[in-house]
Design goal:
Helix 7 runs antiparallel to helix 8. This protein has 3 domains: 6-221, Tetratricopeptide repeat domain (Serine Threonine Protein Phosphatase 5, Tetratricopeptide repeat); 226-336, Serine Threonine Protein Phosphatase 5, Tetratricopeptide repeat (Alpha Horseshoe), CATH 1.25.40; 360-460, Alpha Horseshoe (Serine Threonine Protein Phosphatase 5, Tetratricopeptide repeat). It has 24 helices and no strands. With 460 residues, the chain is an all-alpha fold. The protein has helices at residues 11-25, 29-42, 47-62, 66-87, 92-105, 110-122, 126-139, 143-156, 159-172, 177-195, 206-209, 211-221, 227-243, 248-260, 264-275, 284-307, 312-336, 341-353, 357-367, 374-387, 391-404, 410-425, 429-442, 449-458.
Length: 460
């Protein structure tokens, strides 16, 4: 796979991106985030979309109480983050989605940015990997982060940036083999760029080096379908329905058109008509779209009230209604497809986020039977029991997940850290210390594990 410019996107997707830009300009970051996340499902390598998403995430984040947001994010996102690390090898695209879900709550979340970088690298999205790791480096300017950023620059073909970091590191760590390797690789890329060694005669990713120019070219070259054109296409599809009333494709075109026009009321009206057809009654995509549009409508209302100074009580009621709607729609999918573990897992995550812990436990106990969801479900179960302060039960889940993860990578470190926290809550300092030392031996820079271990050894 490779990264793609905006101009390579389908015209309908370009229109949606423009809608997302306009929504952000009008102070509706929630809608922008939803649209960008959907676009990245189709085009995960479009960096322009991801940058717009990050701008919206920061816009929303700046309006929150940072301390409360970070504390809440720390509680709710660990299982989502572990889920991302679990799938990164076989499904890096899904791992990128998991990272962005965490970043939508806190765009400064370092483990999520690292997950995004690692997944982007696996897909050969060099510029995206740099974008993610640069976000880490802005907040943690240590040598380890500099080394990771330098390697990301090498993958992206940005030799001058990689060389600058390598030269800075080599002065402090002249005997570090990884730093020397970075210096060597940066030199090779610099030679390739200088010699135009690429097969097509163009320097390695030379066109992408000047990001401002690249974005400008994309914006000036793009051809966005006008509102009038979209409305005309919708009308033509409506006329075709008159001639072929049982052709579901015509309904889909109408629904897509109204979605592009942000007319969710009419989109939902035509979804209702499509679902009345025999062929549409059990259509999973129509059911999914219905849920998405209902929530998008309510999210627009919430964002508008927040922008125009709605009362705390009104916003609280609307947000509660939105959570309730999300759960209601997820329950419909579970009831319709009761053996599909993925729907139960998604419903469990919604219950968990709403702090309906007992309901979440029930769903995760079912979803763990799905082999692909087993470890992620165990982690969520551990988090649920931890929330209920049933630490012995939480330990069982985290211990099982730990035993089934063979490699000491990021997700296993997260699991062990949560396990150690449970032992601490049980006043079992010895067991907690043993778990912290496992992480310390593999990664001294992980969270505050160095401080935890130092405290352990400083006690008489």
């Amino acid at each position: 796979m490779s990264e793609v410019p905006v101009t390579a996107l389908d015209l309908r997707l370009q229109q949606r991106l423009e809608n997302a830009r306009v929504a952000l300009d009008r102070g509706n970051p929630d809608y922008t985030i939803n649209i960008c996340l959907e676009l990245l499902q189709v085009a995960p390598g479009c960096l322009v979309v991801r940058k717009l998403l990050r701008a919206a995430q920061f816009r929303l984040y700046r309006g929150k109480n940072k301390y409360v947001a970070k504390c809440l994010n720390a509680v709710l996102t660990v299982p989502f983050l572990i889920e991302g690390f679990l799938v990164i090898k076989n499904n890096p695209k899904k791992a990128m989605t998991a990272a962005e879900k965490v970043l939508s709550g806190d765009p400064t979340h370092i483990p999520a940015l690292k997950l995004l970088c690692k997944a982007a690298s696996a897909l050969d999205f060099g510029e995206t990997a740099v974008f993610a790791m640069a976000g880490v480096y802005e907040r943690r300017k240590d040598d380890e982060t500099a080394l990771l950023l330098g390697n990301a620059y090498v993958q992206a073909g940005s030799s001058s940036e990689a060389m600058a970091l390598a030269e800075s590191l080599i002065r402090r760590r002249p005997h570090d083999g990884r730093v020397r390797e970075l210096m060597k690789n940066a030199s090779v890329i610099e030679s390739i760029n200088a010699g135009n060694w690429d097969a097509d005669g163009v320097s390695y990713r030379g066109k992408l080096k000047d990001e401002a120019t690249a974005v400008s070219l994309e914006q000036s070259a793009k051809t966005v379908a006008s509102r009038e054109m979209t409305e005309r296409l919708v009308q033509e599809a409506i006329e075709r329905v008159g001639g072929e009333p049982n052709n579901l494709n015509h309904y889909r075109e109408i629904i897509r058109g109204y979605e592009s026009l942000n007319n969710f009321d009419l989109a939902l009206e035509w979804i209702g008509k499509a679902r009345q057809l025999p062929v549409g009654q059990n259509d999973a995509e129509l059911l999914r779209q219905e849920s998405v549009f209902k929530m998008a409508k309510l999210e627009e209302i919430v964002s508008e009230r927040r922008k125009n100074g709605g009362s705390k009580e009104e916003l609280g009621a609307l947000e509660a209604e939105l959570i309730s709607l999300r759960i209601k729609e997820a329950k419909i999918l579970v009831e319709k497809y009761p053996t599909e573990g993925g729907y139960r897992f998604d419903l469990g995550k919604l219950y968990f986020a709403e702090n309906s812990i007992d309901a979440a436990i029930q769903q995760f106990q079912s979803s763990q039977k799905n082999p692909s969801l087993r470890i992620a479900s165990l982690v969520f179960l551990g988090a649920c029991f931890k929330q209920k302060e049933l630490y012995d039960l939480a330990v069982q889940q985290f211990e099982t997940a730990k035993s089934e993860l063979s490699v000491m990578d990021e997700q296993k470190k997260e699991v062990i850290y949560e396990l150690a926290l449970c032992y601490e809550s049980m006043s079992n300092a010895k067991a907690a210390g043993e778990e912290y030392k496992l992480i310390y031996a593999a990664d001294i820079g992980f969270r505050d594990v160095a401080e935890k271990v130092n405290q352990l050894y400083s006690k008489p």
